[in-house]
Specification:
The chain is an alpha/beta fold. The protein contains 14 helices and nine strands.
Length: 292
């Protein structure tokens, strides 16, 4: 059984690493903030002092961190993965970062005989906890097949989209689409409430029709209650939309709904709501409509 190193033990990473530990994989973990490794160490993981030390003790290194700059620092900064990874190692990056940066990182790692598979995930904290994530893959076919048994411990729908960076590109598409879904459900529910309709009855009726969606089924209650406990942070989706909008500019694509959603999310983050669930887009529509 291959040795696994896991870097990044936030809400998503700690849940994913936990599945791998419980599956019996030899696991070494590292997190920038001290203390996050303790529950995994209690399950049998070993904590490394740096990403380089983790990489030296691992055949496969999995990353789950916040943004492009974090991935670059962990891979290539002082004490980074590249310092410790032996030729033949594999890096699996489950973070959501820039597709073009991913291609550059893959080239730099390949120069020292290390493969990179970009494997951004969708499904939020619930998907990470239940191991039901959807995972989008980019990278060499042989590297993807080597990564697949690990990723099958973490998700249900795993699709390879071609060369390095393509997994990240698909994740950008995903984030653009869910921006529209969240905003549309928020608008529809506020319209229903302002019209004096029972919003829960509306959700029940619409769920079986064309308007039915995961967002309607799983996030409408938060929007109706105007309470947004964490599922997927608004600040992280805003970061992801930034990646998608940059990709769109490079390709000459116009994304008006994504751009508007990013503006709303910027305002929410500026007002201190960035750690709430993304369904808090309803907060903006409620306020603009004088519902509250």
């Amino acid at each position: 059984m291959e040795r696994i190193g896991f870097v990044g033990l936030g809400t998503m990473g700690s849940a994913m690493a936990g599945h791998l530990v419980r599956a019996g994989h030899p696991i070494v973990v590292w997190n920038r903030t001290p203390g996050r490794a303790e529950p995994l160490v209690a399950l049998g993981a070993t904590e490394a002092a740096s990403p380089a030390e983790l990489a030296a003790a691992s055949d496969i290194i999995v990353l789950s961190v916040s943004d492009t700059l974090d991935v670059e620092a962990i891979l290539f900064g002082p004490g980074g993965v590249a310092e410790g990874a032996a030729p033949g190692s594999l890096v699996i990056d489950t973070s959501t970062i820039s597709p073009s940066a991913t291609r550059t990182f893959a080239e730099r790692l390949a120069a020292q005989g290390v493969d990179l598979v970009d494997a951004p995930v969708s499904g939020g904290s619930e998907g990470a906890q239940k191991a039901t994530l959807t995972i989008f893959l980019g990278g060499r076919a042989a590297a993807v097949e080597r990564a697949r048994p690990i990723l099958e411990r973490l998700g249900r729908t795993i699709t390879h989209f071609g060369p390095s960076g393509n997994g990240q590109a698909v994740k950008a598409v995903n984030q653009v689409m869910i921006a529209g879904l969240y905003l549309a459900v928020a608008e529809g529910l506020v319209l229903a409430m302002k019209a004096g309709l029972d919003p829960e009855q509306v959700v029940s009726a619409l769920g079986g029709g064309v308007a039915g969606s995961w967002v309607l089924a799983n996030r409408s209650a938060k929007m109706i209650a105007n309470e947004y406990p964490l599922g997927f942070r608004t600040s992280l989706h805003l970061k992801d939309l930034g990646i998608a909008l940059a990709m769109a500019r490079e390709l000459g694509v116009v994304l008006p709904v994504a751009a508007l959603t990013a503006q709303f999310e910027n305002g929410l983050v500026a007002r201190g709501f960035g750690d709430e669930d993304l369904s808090n887009l309803a907060r903006v529509i409620r306020e603009l409509s004088a519902l509250d």
